[in-house]
Design goal:
728 residues, 7-stranded parallel β-sheet, 45% helix, 27 strands, binds 5'-O-[(L-methionyl)-sulphamoyl]adenosine
Length: 728
């Protein structure tokens, strides 16, 4: 990613998306907020006047329905869930400067002003529209009736309304010019390409009001309409700064935003609609919008509707907030999807935090405590500078001190590029270097020596290690602030938040500084940490299921137009999928449509949606299209089929793929007579690694459905398919 522009002024304004209150926070939603918090802390330490905004998105039909399901009024419901988000952020010590709720009067009034302004300027007009509306995404989508949403795969509703429209089509060119002239406007490049192809495919005017529900901000002067929830939500970035109020000083100071951080599925709203609204209003545009990847759990996007969420609270309870922050920033490559697992979390915690940073701090400071009464020693000049060992020591201290600018520069560069994983790895590389230095110098041996010269060395070695820790701690503070604050206090340096990162230089640790009270920074995780976290999650899930405290995102079956019969729902979903794929403007949009189709129609979402019908199989781990494409499925013709001696189930087949002949051993003997198979066209997995069965090498696998009792039924085509044809 491009480095964030260092702003001309000394201010930095950054935002997270505002979270829907239809579901409680989980570590997927925590991810965006943790990233923002790390950036905000670093900017503050660099001396920027920083404004970090987060909050909750509380209007719309989705929320209205969730409230109804929870048996609460929308206001009571949103109050409750919004408070849960805020309480979690506070418990995690996240340093947001403002928390906006879209139900607050400061927001609703300003959104009405924005709407009126756009209408007065001629960018909003009234018209009648009939189309498919996705309640989950709160957006009209271009699909046939009954088809699922191309973005999220949920069934859409046919809505015919007199609506207000925003002239989005007028912004096609200006938007493309913006993307071309400011490549850093959308990051990373993959997201930029997706958005650009979306705009290039043509922009239609956007419906920006609804009359079919009331939980929203009324259109000024036409109260039976409520303002489109995305216009309402996006505006939070300016209404929170006081735009449209009597006091616009904060808006004038901080707008435009330096960085909007959003998940990849909502980059389009932020990179197309939002700049178009701002252009229409005559307001400055954001400097940069970055679309990050998803946190996956058990290989699929962590989300409440998939039922695969992990709550941050569980991790806080067992390992603490820094463990979660460290994992999210180190393990997940920002911009890409990344996996979460309890095992990986504990492994990272033990190896990097407990054994790495924590151990370095403990052993160094304990030695200063023991050999120098807890006072930082001076790196003494050697009385005999010609002495070989002393010269060696000076050289070693110089080596680490000279490494510092290099490390700091690399870290800064990587962090500015939002490459947190690399940035953190750079610091941990330095931790290893300091560890190697201490082990090689063996201060405990120097301390036990009678040789006075070695006492000088001891002071130098421990000063050097302590100074390296100070530097590391100042740099790593945005990532693990609680631990960094503890270490800072143990170094006798007071409050880390007052540190000036801009002027961080080697040698800043004053000899004579009295260390604070020492104590473990990252105690090793208990052996049962993974099991404990899993158990807490399980207990919480069963308690939540019993109490059903928070209503879910509406599922397909809840929408009025969702057919009751599962097969017909699946049929229309399939038709919709075909349309969505053929109309996708990018490969990743097609993949998203496919993934969400699988999630909603084959995974557990579909199981909940189907009111009656067959029992649904256990969900398999989700794969990406890239995984699927690795499987080389081909049409082959059986040329020879015969029983395998002493194997009741196995048949030895010779199949023709057109380009080669293969031998395959298949468990078909109990169902198919060998002679009935000769000449038959089947589907095989052509790139399965060879394996030996009963002394025969089998090169591939024949694809069959598994019926009751495990009986196979061969996959076949109605059409006559050429042999060798690939299934994709
Ligand atoms: N309310 C809208 C945003 C409006 S902003 C003007 C919304 N809300 S959300 O609650 O669904 O998502 C908020 C953010 O959480 C998004 O950036 C989304 O990507 C992020 N995440 C939700 N689940 C996530 C993961 N499993 N992994 C990473 N981020 C995730 O969209």
């Amino acid at each position: 990613m491009t480095a964030l522009f260092l702003p001309m002024s000394n201010k930095f304004y950054l935002t997270t998306p505002i979270y829907y209150v239809n579901a409680r926070p989980h570590i997927g939603t925590t991810y965006t907020t943790v990233v923002a918090d790390a950036i905000a802390r670093r900017k503050r330490a660099l001396g920027f006047e920083t404004w970090f905004l987060t909050g909750t998105d509380e209007h719309g039909q989705k929320i209205e329905r969730s409230a109804e399901k929870a048996g609460l009024s929308p206001q009571a419901f949103t109050d409750k869930v919004s408070a849960q988000f805020k309480a979690l952020w506070d418990r995690m010590g996240l340093t947001y400067d403002d928390y906006i709720r879209t139900t607050e009067p400061r927001h609703t009034r300003a959104v009405q002003k924005l709407f009126a302004l756009l209408r007065d300027k001629g960018f909003i007009y009234k018209d009648t529209y009939t189309g498919q509306y996705c309640v989950s995404d709160e957006a009209f989508v271009d699909v046939p009736p009954g088809a699922p949403c191309p973005d999220c795969g949920r069934i859409t509703e046919t809505v015919s309304e007199e609506n207000y429209f925003f002239k989005l089509s007028a912004f096609e060119r200006p938007l493309l010019e913006l993307f071309e002239s400011q490549p850093e406007f959308i990051q990373p490049a993959t997201r930029r390409n997706e958005v650009m192809s979306f705009v290039k495919a043509g922009l239609k005017d956007l419906s920006v009001s609804r009359t079919s529900f009331t939980w929203g901000i009324p259109v000024p002067g036409d109260e039976k309409h409520v303002i489109y929830v995305w216009m309402d939500a996006l505006a939070n970035y300016i209404t929170a700064l006081g735009w449209g109020s009597d006091d616009t000083s904060k808006f004038e100071k901080f707008w435009p935003t330096d960085l909007h951080i959003v998940g990849k599925e909502i980059t389009r709203f932020h990179c197309v609609y939002w700049p178009a609204f701002l252009m229409a209003a005559g307001l400055p545009l954001p400097k940069s919008i970055v679309g990050h990847g998803w946190l996956l759990f058990e290989e699929s996007k962590m989300s409440k509707s998939r039922g695969n969420i992990v709550r941050a609270e569980t991790i806080l309870e067992v390992l603490g907030a820094d463990a979660l922050r460290y994992f999210l920033l180190r393990e997940i490559v920002f911009g890409q999807d990344g996996n979460f697992s309890f095992d990986a979390l504990v492994q990272r915690y033990n190896s990097d935090l407990a054994n790495g940073y924590g151990n370095l701090v403990s052993r160094t400071l304990a030695m200063i405590g023991k050999y120098f009464d807890g006072v930082v020693p001076a790196p003494e000049p050697y009385p005999d500078s010609d002495h070989a060992t002393a010269g060696n020591q000076v050289g070693k201290q110089a080596y680490l001190s000279e490494r510092f600018p290099e490390i700091a520069e690399k870290f800064n560069e990587e962090f500015e590029k939002l490459d947190f994983s690399r940035a953190v790895a750079t610091l941990w590389g330095f931790i290893s270097e300091v560890d190697v230095f201490i082990t090689a110098e063996a201060p405990w041996k120097l301390a036990s020596s009678e040789n006075e010269l070695l006492r000088y060395q001891l002071a130098t070695v421990l000063y050097t290690a302590a100074e390296a820790i100070r530097i590391l701690t100042a740099l790593v503070y945005p990532v693990i602030p609680d631990a960094a604050a503890k270490v800072w206090a143990q170094l006798g340096l007071g409050d880390i938040r007052t540190t000036d990162l801009k002027n961080l230089a080697w040698g800043g640790l004053q000899p004579g500084t009295k260390l604070g009270e020492l104590g473990p920074v990252f105690p090793r995780a208990e052996k049962d940490a993974v099991d404990r976290m899993k158990q807490i999650e399980e207990e919480n899930n069963s308690a939540a299921a019993a109490a059903a405290p928070v209503a879910e995102t509406p599922k397909v079956a809840e929408t009025p137009t969702a057919p009751a019969e599962h097969p017909s729902r699946l049929k229309s979903a399939l038709e919709g999928l075909a349309t969505a794929i053929s109309e996708s403007t990018s490969e990743s949009a097609a993949i998203t449509a496919l993934e969400t189709f699988v999630e909603n129609n084959i995974g557990d979402g579909a199981a909940e949606a189907a009111p009656a019908g067959p029992a649904y199989p256990e969900r398999s781990p989700e794969i990406t299209i890239d995984d699927f494409i690795k499987v080389d499925l081909r049409v082959a013709q059986i040329k020879v089929a015969e029983r395998v001696p002493k194997a009741d189930k196995l048949l030895r087949l010779e199949v023709d793929l057109g380009y080669e002949q293969r031998q395959i051993l298949a468990g078909l003997a109990e169902t198919y007579a060998p002679e009935s198979l000769v000449g038959r066209k089947v589907v095989i997995v052509a790139n399965l690694a060879p394996r030996k069965l009963r002394g025969f090498e089998s090169n591939g696998m024949v694809v069959a459905a598994s019926l009751e009792g495990g009986k196979p039924a061969l996959a076949a085509f109605i059409e006559d398919i050429e042999i060798g044809a690939r299934l994709k």
